[in-house]
């Protein structure tokens, strides 16, 4: 039996997704929803210097999120194009 995580979306994520081409949104959302079953897929990497922050590579976009294993929560706080992903981080 697989324990699924609950996804929580920050307001900053809502702002980010509005800037993205509508044709890409279903594909991106599908990849993000997959984090419920596996919050650490192969395409994700732990952010250096952070305890529980990760980034997920989805094509040319990066999804930034935190994982709370104790409460089974995945908090998604950013979705940006890769050229903007690492500025001022």
Short structural summary:
The chain is of the alpha+beta class.
Can you put this structure into words, describing what you see?
This protein is of the alpha+beta class and 89 residues long. It has a domain of 62 residues: YaeB-like fold. It has three helices and five strands. The protein has a five-stranded mixed beta sheet with strand order 1-5-4-3-2. 19% of the residues are buried. The model has no long low-confidence stretch (mean pLDDT 91).
Number of strands: 5
CATH architecture of the domain at 28-89: 2-Layer Sandwich
CATH superfamily of the domain at 28-89, called what? RelE-like
Please provide the ordered H/E string of secondary-structure elements: EHHEEEEH
Regarding quaternary structure, what we see is: single chain
Q: Which percent range describes the beta-strand content? A: 25-35%
Biggest β-sheet description: 5 strands, mixed
Rg measurement, Å:
13 Å
Q: Please work out how many helical segments DSSP would assign.
A: 3
Overall structural class, as computed from helix and strand content, comes to alpha+beta
| Range of helix content | 10-25%
**Ends apart, CA distance between termini:** 37 Å
* CATH topology (level 3) name of the domain at 28-89: YaeB-like fold
Strand order of the largest sheet: 1-5-4-3-2
Shape: globular
Average pLDDT metric = 91
CATH domain class name of the domain at 28-89:
Alpha Beta
